[in-house]
Design a protein that fits this description.
Number of strands: 11
CATH architecture of one domain: Alpha-Beta Complex
Order of helices and strands: HHHHHEEEEEEHEEEHHHEHEHHHHHH
Strand content: 5-15%
CATH superfamily of one domain: PEBP-like
Number of helices: 16
Distance between the termini: 75 Å
Length: 546
């Protein structure tokens, strides 16, 4: 490639014949003007070429419109040309980016398809590799051919590609959009599955179905409305309502129930259950897969729920017999009460894993996505509204069984008399709850001359800092010299300490604190002195789940 010298404004200054330097600034201005002029000419040339192309397409559309309207091939070509004409209009691209284009229109449907293939699918496949979806859930990575979108009340995702979601956000079912861009009616099965649910009976992780809908008819595009959650219970009295409000204190967002229950197309086999990952140590990030499976033509997926219930009862009886023969305490088994039976906790895992369900029902995976979630201090509100027991998984490492029992009992007592909700506790109170140790005053320090000097120096430094802040604040009000410094200091405080800027992070609690809160919850099987609590006291040193 021949060498091209740099622009004159970037070359070293050269001496003029009279000994002076060339005007550097005027050269740069001249070069900038030249570049701007060239850019303007290029833009005009591109607009002229685009308009010529659009004129050719208009003529082709006019010719095709005169043809036989019953000829399907001609009509398909006509539709393609109209999409081409709309795709070449810059205004349509501006509307699509701004979210104003209706996805049912052909041109915007084409843009939506292009964005899905070129941007969202690669990000989805990369995220699946990072989260080990391929291998753990699916045998191999494939390119989805159906566009799948999923959004809760306060999310605006273009696609579910592993975004983290607090469990409280999932109280009500998400809005799911399935786009095929096909005029033919196709039937799908939609499932939302937790692939990391722990099972106390098998001591392993299993796949568990949160939502299952079969025979969903889709023609080009279908929106499954959100807001379904039939298993949520409303508080029965003021005490239960106050307890729920206490659990939700500090939550950034709490979804609201819709005014009317949504109408779900298709056959709802398993109604929606919100995400409720249990507390664990180490903390487990749960993966929730949304799969869209195409059914055979003119075929229906038949799932016998009554047969599943009979199989669940049989499996439960076998596990109970094995546990009794092995002498396992109650806290090492799954807690299945009336609400668990109503939600069909056991039945929801019998159809899975996903690969087995696809094979058994002759389905084809066409679209997918996933989100992630883990336990936080507001997750107990989900368990409470579902009316099911909240397990706590993990191990406590203390010096002796006696220390373990003491810590559990202390944490339980502290949880029963907290001054406020977890989100509003002081650091000292939260630390006492996390470690099962009551708050204590720091021991008195012996006063010495050196210690008194250090205290005075610290006090003087603190007063100097306070005075400087007051001066900067006063200058900021009148726009003086300290205004800029005050803004910089405020920005630094916001970065260093979010609490100073009015923000508050969600506090973290240990499995000991989580278990203590469960043991104080009204209606939970672990509250009081029932069989499970007695078992914990009998096998204190093996404590894992209350």
């Amino acid at each position: 490639m021949p060498f091209r010298p740099p622009p004159s404004c970037l070359r070293p200054a050269q001496r003029s014949p009279v000994g002076g330097k060339r005007p550097f600034r005027s050269q740069c201005k001249r070069t900038a003007t030249t570049v701007s002029s060239a850019s303007s000419h290029a833009q005009k040339f591109a607009s002229r070429v685009l308009e010529e192309h659009r004129e050719i397409v208009r003529k082709e559309i006019a010719t095709l419109e005169k043809a036989d309207p019953k000829d399907k091939e001609v009509q398909a070509r006509l539709l393609a040309k109209k999409v081409d004409l709309g795709y070449s209009d810059p205004k349509n691209h501006e509307a699509f980016v701004a979210g104003k284009g209706a996805p049912t229109q052909d041109v915007f449907a084409a843009m939506h398809q292009q964005r899905w293939k070129s941007k969202l699918v690669p990000r989805l496949r990369k995220s699946e590799e990072n989260w080990k979806i391929i291998g753990d859930v699916l045998p191999k990575s494939t390119t989805p051919t159906v566009i799948v979108q999923m959004n809760f009340q306060n999310t605006e995702w273009l696609a579910p590609i592993g975004q983290p979601v607090p469990p409280i956000w999932t109280l009500y079912s998400p809005e799911v959009t399935i786009t095929t861009n096909d005029d033919a009616v196709r039937h799908f099965t939609v499932a939302l599955v937790d692939v990391d649910r722990p099972d106390s009976d098998t001591k392993s992780y299993e796949e568990w179905c949160h939502w299952l809908i079969t025979d969903v008819p889709v023609q080009r595009r279908l929106v499954i409305p959100g807001g379904s959650s039939p298993y949520l219970q409303t508080p029965k009295d003021d005490a239960a309502k106050g307890e729920l409000e206490k659990m939700l204190t500090g939550a950034h967002f709490v979804p609201k129930a819709p005014e009317t229950a949504p109408v779900i197309p298709g056959n709802v086999v398993f109604p929606y259950v919100p995400a409720h990952p249990p507390a664990s140590n180490p903390r487990k990030q749960h993966r929730y897969m949304l799969v869209v499976l195409e059914q055979e033509k003119e075929g229906s997926v038949k799932i016998d729920v009554e047969s599943l219930k009979a199989q669940a009862r049989k499996t439960e009886a076998e596990l109970k017999k094995k546990a009794e023969e092995a002498g396992l305490p109650q806290w090492e088994r799954s807690a299945l009460g009336e609400r668990e039976a109503e939600i069909m906790v056991r039945e929801r895992g019998l159809l899975l894993p996903i690969t087995k369900f696809i094979k058994d029902n002759n389905l084809t995976l066409k679209g997918r996505g996933f989100m992630t979630s883990f336990w936080d201090i507001h997750t107990p509100a989900v368990f409470s509204q579902l009316g099911i027991h909240e397990p706590v998984y993990g191990s406590l490492h203390f010096q002796s069984p006696r220390d373990t029992v003491a810590s559990i009992q202390t944490a339980t007592d502290l949880a029963s008399s907290l001054p406020g909700p977890i989100a509003a506790l002081s650091a000292a109170t939260l630390k006492a709850l996390n470690y099962g140790r009551p708050e204590s005053l720091s021991p008195a320090r012996l006063l010495t001359r050196r210690g008194t000097t250090v205290d005075n120096m610290r006090r003087a430094d603190a007063e100097a800092i306070l005075q400087k802040r007051e001066r900067d604040a006063a200058n900021a009000k009148v726009g003086g010299k300290g205004a800029k410094n005050a803004k910089v200091a405020a920005a630094a405080a916001d970065v260093a300490s979010p609490k100073a800027a009015g923000k508050r992070t969600i506090p973290r609690v240990t499995v000991l604190a989580a278990a203590a809160m469960v043991r104080n919850r009204t209606g939970d099987i672990a509250k009081g002195s029932g069989e499970m609590v007695r078992s914990v006291k009998e096998k204190r040193y093996r404590y894992k789940n209350v």
